[in-house]
Amino acid sequence: MQYKYTVLTNTMLGALMASINMNIVMITLPSIFRGLNINPFAPGEFVYLLWILMGYSIILASILVTFGRISDLYGRARMYTWGFIIFTIASILLSIVPGNSGNNGALLLIVFRMVQAVGAGFLMVNSTALLTDAFPVYERGKAMGINQISFIVGSLLGLILGGFLSGYDWHLVFIVNIPFAIAGTIWSIFKLKETAEKQKVHMDIWGNVSLALSLILISLGFTYTLEPYKNSQMGWGSPYVIASFIFGIIFLIAFVFIERRVKGPLFNLSLFKIKPFAFGNLSLLLSSLGRGAVMFLVIIWLQGIYLPLHGFSYTQTPFWAGIYMLPMLVGMVIFGPIGGALTDKYGARIFATSGMIVTSIGLFLLTLLPYNFNALQFELIIFLIGIGGGLFAAPNTTAIMNAVASKDRASANGMRMTINNVSSTISMAIFFSITITIFSQKLPSAMITSATSIGVPYQLALRLSSIPPSGALFGAFLGVNPISVIPSQLLSTLSPSTLAALESSTFFPKVIGPSFMVGLSYSIYIALALSILGAVFSALMGERYVHEEHGVIEANKERGEIPNGSK
Fold first, then answer.
1. Which CATH architecture best describes the domain 1-201?
2. Torsion angle of alpha carbons 503, 505, 508, 512, nearest 10°?
3. Among 46, 154, 508, 561, which is least packed by CB within 10 angstroms?
4. What does the alpha-carbon distance between residue 394 and residue 340 come to, in Å, rounded to a whole number?
5. Rounded distance between C-alpha atoms, residue 67 and residue 74, angstroms
């Protein structure tokens, strides 16, 4: 096997493992919380859910650029292999967390997931760099597209395996990672080799510290905006959130100041003078801001409203929400490799721009759907969004990576992945805040009106209206009917028909459906505007650009392997 295909198959294994891990945890959170014996509605318990969901991303956001630079200095293949080793150890630790261990078990899960994120960080920053090193410039888009398939297939497997394994034992969702991680470790040790020259420069300690502190504080700030503060449903007014933003920005300014003056900087800021790199990352930022949380809100829409309305129990909805999202993955599987292969021939700009435009059309069509939508229309729309994502991803990545020299590839990819992770965290905070703010204004009156209409006494209806909106939505996301938080002694006075109507799977979705859709529509409109702006920046990337090193590009042009119009 040619070495380039060895790299491709190995990085596909890493992408498959990472995407299975990400999606299988999302789908099996209800089983994990039940297995740990945690009540998501109890005071203070929401923070554990928040950290299990966001802790992984916070660690990734803070380490990727640093890990990229370390890999440029000490060897990408070596650091990639260490990523597999760390990921394997973390997966084993996660699989032995005791059941029924409550909050202590949740803390162990959070810590071990963070360790897992460290391993994933080494894998993520080096996989794209190793592919770029191994493949000639005229085949890189195709390689990125094929690699993307494994990530999407892993997402599909994660959904299916999560739904299947969680019915037996939640520990299995972590055990399933171990064979992939061990196989990847062994394969990397014996098959990967260093093809890029190691750099002999000093490590930029202060640059590393200032950037890591900045990203951690900013990510923490946005994460804790989702935690209620005092009488507010969101945490934007919390002094800790405000302080995190202020000091995060201060450290970010310090990072830029340090990088402009230090010898051997952590990140070469002059790369942003290259149009494809700068505009490619800007369009990636806008794409992640627009799509990240909106897709999460769509899943809540499915789990908390649509699926219960159509006869699915709350314990079934996490799995079936994943099934309903499959057309989007199919669209990405089909058009990801197509976009990558066409990029090799015609350049990235037209396909990355088209992908953002198609995504914008899909987002607009989502705003036209009612909360109890026609299933076929919904599936066609998210398939269209998948097409847009597939057309955008590989061309955008190829354009960014082709724009940098070999010595900067891992750190450049670290910057690319950091932008993607931080913008997803920001997206979650902003769009969830918009949705919850509008939702919380309308929920109490809607709950009182609906409850009294089925015979619930006013005082009990008032009690129902006090359910925290964020807790209600996350409860539905975890497969728990929010009505179940009402003490049974309060419900015992109701007539059998009223009690049956109140506890049915359709009562709560009908209450929250209209008001949730108002908040979701506002979020989608903002995501639509960001996607259109992302299309503009993709169009500004310019014609094909390939970083010229040691005359290799010119030699390829002479052989006719790269069009003469390339720069």
1. Up-down Bundle (1.20)
2. 180
3. 561
4. 5
5. 10
Q: In a 10 Å sphere around its CB, with 0-12 CB exposed, 13-18 middle and 19+ buried, how is residue 487 labelled? A: exposed
| Structural contact between residues 41 and 471, judged by C-beta atoms closer than 8 angstroms | yes
Residue 470, number of CB atoms within 10 A of its CB: 21
More confident residue, 456 or 376: 376
Mention every residue, 6+ apart, whose C-beta is less than 8 A from residue 37: 99, 100, 101, 102
Which tokens in the block code for residue 475? 């409860």
- Would you state the structure tokens that stand for residue 513, as one six-digit string? 């459906």
Query: Highest-confidence range of 7-11, 20-24, 230-234, by mean pLDDT?
Result: 7-11
8 A C-beta contact, residue 385 and residue 333: no
CB 255 within 8 A of CB 499: no
Q: Report, as an integer, the average pLDDT of 165-174.
A: 80
* Domain ranges within the chain, ordered by starting residue: 1-201, 202-263, 440-512
Q: Is the pLDDT of residue 53 over 80?
A: no
267 and 409 in contact (C-beta within 8 Å)?
A: no
Q: Work out the widest C-alpha separation in the chain, in whole angstroms.
A: 86
- For the stretch 461-506, pLDDT in tens is 888 887 777 777 776 666 676 677 677 777 777 888 888 888 887 8
Q: What pTM does this model have?
A: 0.79
Return the amino acid letter for 479.
G
If you compute the radius of gyration of the chain from its CA atoms, what whole number of angstroms results? 24
